[in-house]
């Protein structure tokens, strides 16, 4: 009998801590963008569909940067890939200073796009990087561990954004100074992380999916097939596209829903957004436990069905019942990204890294969907906009129920 695999080795511990912190960093950045969305509505007098450009800039960068980041990682290694991502993240943050001085929403869009390129690079590199920091049989455990810190970051983002942008905001005030202060602070912190990580000596790592032995977690069972011929992989890319589309739209207008349908102030609505992100953390723990007794694809389908029901309730504008349903959307959303990801790379062996880049590009769904929801929100009210994510969850439901199957 083989010895039980360790979570990681002592030599990887410092690197593991640094890479895990990256998951929290992009969790903070993504949810802070949702607070920024509402702040730009206030100070730049934007409509909801116009402010959705915040999400377009960030998630659009994922589409543009996904493959280049993967190629850079393959050519220059994990550590340099992380340093590139952190550098772009910091650069985009510092560009908020000239953007604020010109009060140009277009300039802000450029800065956000560069931030998004940094986040895309970090996310593309960090998943396989953390998987490589130890025994291949425990790579999934390390990824799930790091993802829990991503959820913590998602909870911190709204609170940090609210403190800087909403705490002392007076209605009608067009001052962009708080945005500048916030993103200078972010840029400095990210730059310090980059400098610190540059000094870390990363031990030699092994691709956990490149070793084809009897205990490997991901062995290619059909090496003669082209990647695109693996239907479960293709459907995973499609499902991830719609998954992140629903996520981006739902998160982007959460504060608007609290303000319009519940009568909350921006500060109060943002505080509930922290609860909203907390539901995602609870959902990940619950999902991890439930996957011991329920097949991941079946749980994915069940959670997708749960979100279809929640979206219908949210769209009715029933007050607290609808708002609780809105909070529950993030509970059911919790397992979708990692589960779609893991089902999509199943039995791809050494092509896992390439497949990961394409599935990560599915994040581009978040670039366009907030525009659609914003258009509906502007014309028919924010509650009716929540009918749209139902389309996304129907696709995910079919993937979990049928199209996840690996065919040799």
Q: What's a quick, concise take on this entry?
A:
By secondary structure, this protein is mainly alpha-helical.
Overall mean pLDDT score?
87
Could you estimate the helical fraction of the residues in percent? over 70%
CA radius of gyration = 21 Å
Structural class: mainly alpha
- What is the CATH superfamily label? MFS general substrate transporter like domains
How many runs of DSSP E, i.e. beta strands? 0
The level 1 CATH classification is: Mainly Alpha
Distance between the termini: 29 Å
Low-confidence stretches: 211-217
Largest sheet: none
State the CATH architecture. Up-down Bundle
Which oligomerization state do the chains in this entry correspond to? single chain
Order of helices and strands: HHHHHHHHHHHHHHHHH
The total tally of domains equals 1
How much of the residues is beta strand, in percent? under 5%
Shape: globular
Number of continuous helical runs: 17
CATH topology: Growth Hormone, Chain: A
Secondary-structure blueprint of this entry?
Blueprint: H1 13-43, H2 48-51, H3 53-76, H4 78-94, H5 96-102, H6 105-131, H7 139-165, H8 177-198, H9 231-252, H10 254-261, H11 266-290, H12 296-316, H13 320-333, H14 336-344, H15 352-361, H16 365-380, H17 389-403
Helix pairs in contact: 1-3, 1-6, 1-7, 1-8, 3-4, 3-6, 3-15, 3-16, 4-6, 4-8, 5-6, 6-15, 7-11, 9-14, 9-15, 9-16, 9-17, 10-11, 11-13, 12-13, 12-14, 12-17
């Amino acid at each position: 009998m083989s010895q039980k695999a360790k979570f990681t080795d002592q030599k990887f511990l410092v690197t593991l801590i640094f890479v895990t912190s990256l998951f929290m960093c992009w969790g903070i950045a993504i949810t802070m963008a949702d607070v920024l969305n509402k702040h730009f509505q206030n100070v730049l007098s934007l409509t909801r569909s116009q402010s959705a450009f915040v999400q377009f800039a960030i998630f659009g960068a994922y589409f543009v940067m996904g493959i280049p980041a993967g190629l850079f990682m393959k050519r220059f290694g994990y550590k340099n890939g992380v340093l590139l991502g952190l550098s772009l993240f910091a650069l985009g943050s510092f560009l908020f200073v000239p953007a604020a001085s010109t009060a140009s929403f277009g300039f802000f869009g450029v800065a956000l796009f560069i931030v998004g390129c940094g986040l895309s690079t970090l996310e593309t590199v960090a998943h396989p990087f953390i998987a490589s920091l130890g025994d291949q049989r425990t790579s999934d455990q390390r990824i799930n561990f790091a993802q829990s810190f991503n959820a913590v970051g998602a909870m911190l983002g709204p609170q940090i954004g609210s403190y800087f942008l909403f705490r002392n905001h007076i209605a009608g005030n067009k001052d962009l100074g708080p945005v500048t202060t916030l993103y200078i602070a972010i840029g400095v912190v990210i730059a310090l992380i980059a400098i610190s990580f540059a000094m870390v000596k990363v031990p030699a790592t092994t691709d956990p999916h490149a070793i084809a032995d009897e205990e490997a977690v991901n062995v290619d069972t059909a090496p003669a097939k082209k990647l695109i011929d693996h239907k479960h992989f293709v459907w995973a890319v499609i499902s991830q596209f719609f998954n992140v589309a629903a996520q981006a739209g739902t998160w982007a207008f959460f504060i608007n829903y609290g303000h319009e349908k519940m009568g909350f102030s921006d500060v109060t609505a943002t505080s509930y957004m922290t609860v909203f992100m907390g539901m995602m953390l609870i959902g990940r723990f619950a999902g991890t436990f439930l996957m011991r007794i329920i097949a991941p694809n079946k749980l994915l389908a069940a959670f997708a069905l749960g979100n279809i029901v929640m979206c219908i309730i949210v769209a009715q504008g029933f007050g607290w019942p609808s708002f609780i349903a809105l909070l529950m959307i993030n509970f059911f959303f919790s397992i979708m990204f990692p589960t779609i990801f893991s089902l999509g790379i199943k039995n791809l062996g050494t092509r896992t890294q390439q497949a990961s880049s394409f599935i990560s590009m599915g994040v581009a769904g978040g670039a366009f969907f907030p525009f659609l929801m914003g258009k509906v929100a502007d014309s028919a009210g924010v509650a009716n906009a929540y009918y749209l994510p139902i389309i996304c969850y129907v696709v995910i439901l079919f993937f979990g129920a049928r199209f996840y199957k690996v065919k040799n």
